[in-house]
Amino acid sequence: MEKKRTRAPNYSSKEKEVLLTIVRKHKNIVENKKTDAVSVNDKKLAWFKITQEFNCVSPNNCLRDTDSLRKYYDNLKEDIRKKAGHQRRSLYKTGGGPPSPIKKDDCDDLILDIVNTKTIFGLANPCDNDQVTEKQISMEDSEPWTETKIMESDTNSVSETFHGTGIPTDQIEVVFVDQPNSSCASMNLSDKSFGTKPGDLRKVLNPCLQKNIKQTYNNSIPINESARKRPNFSRRRPSVIRPLSSSTLAEKYEILLDKKIHLANGLQQEHELRMTLLRFDIALKKKQLIATGFHDTDVNLIESAELML
C-alpha cells in the first residue's frame, strides 16, 4: 500500500522573500526560454542549488523539496500576472472615477525584477501595442481653437473676430485676390442638373478632351490598318502581334529545334543501316545452314525472322 504524501505547511511571507531572493541569483538560468537538453539540465541543477540554499536558511526550519519550491515559484508568477490583468481591466471600466485599488504585496517588486516584464505588461510596438499608456493628453494644455470670420465688404470695412489669439485687429493684413472670369467659376457645383441627356454620350468627344498621343511602332512589325485608325480613347486595345522571331529567345529555340531535327535524322539513318546489316547477316546464315544440310524447320525459323525485319 502506497504511503500518502504528508501535506507541508503553507509558505509564510518570510519564506516567500527568502525564496525570491535566492531565485534572483539564478534568474538567468531559471527564466531561460530555451528548451534544449543542455538548458533543461542547467535548470535542474540551478533548482537543486536553490533547494539546498533555501533549506540551509529556512526561517521556520521546514525543509522543502525541489518540486514544491518550483511549483510555488510558478504560482507566484501566475498571481502577479492576474494582478496586472485585473489592473488593466479596471482602467478600461466605464462609469468614470479612479480605478479600483489593488492589494499589493511587498514581494511583487522582487518578482518583477526576476521575470520578463513583457510577459506581464505586454509587448511594446511603435504602431500599436497592448500596453497601458501612462501619458494622458489634457485638453487644457492644447492650443486654443481660433475662429476667423471674414465678411465680404470694402477693404476699409472688414470686420473680423479672433478668439484666443491676442492679436490686435490693426496688425492683421487682408489681401483680396481677383479671380478670373471663367465658366467653371460661375458654375454652381451644388446644382446637379447640368442638362446632360443620354443622347449626348453618342456625340463626338470635345477635341480638348482628346489626347494627342503618337504611337511609334517598329517598321518590322506588321500592324493592321484597323489598329492604326482606331482612336486613342477607344476601349479596345490595339491588336498588335509581335513576331516571336524578333527576340533572341526565339532564335535560340530555332537553333535548338534545328539541332534536334538533325539528331533525329542521324538516328534514323543509323537505324536503317543497322536493319540492312541484319538482313545481310540473316541471308548469310541461311546460306550456311542450307550448305551444311540442316533441317527445313531451322530454315523456316530464319525465314520468319527475316520477314519480321
From TrEMBL:
<protein>
    <recommendedName>
        <fullName>Regulatory protein zeste</fullName>
    </recommendedName>
</protein>
<dbReference type="InterPro" id="IPR028002">
    <property type="entry name" value="Myb_DNA-bind_5"/>
</dbReference>
<keyword id="KW-0805">Transcription regulation</keyword>
<comment type="function">
    <text>Involved in transvection phenomena (= synapsis-dependent gene expression), where the synaptic pairing of chromosomes carrying genes with which zeste interacts influences the expression of these genes. Zeste binds to DNA and stimulates transcription from a nearby promoter.</text>
</comment>
<dbReference type="Pfam" id="PF13873">
    <property type="entry name" value="Myb_DNA-bind_5"/>
</dbReference>
<feature type="domain" description="Myb/SANT-like DNA-binding">
    <location>
        <begin position="7"/>
        <end position="84"/>
    </location>
</feature>
<keyword id="KW-0804">Transcription</keyword>
<comment type="subunit">
    <text>Self-associates forming complexes of several hundred monomers.</text>
</comment>
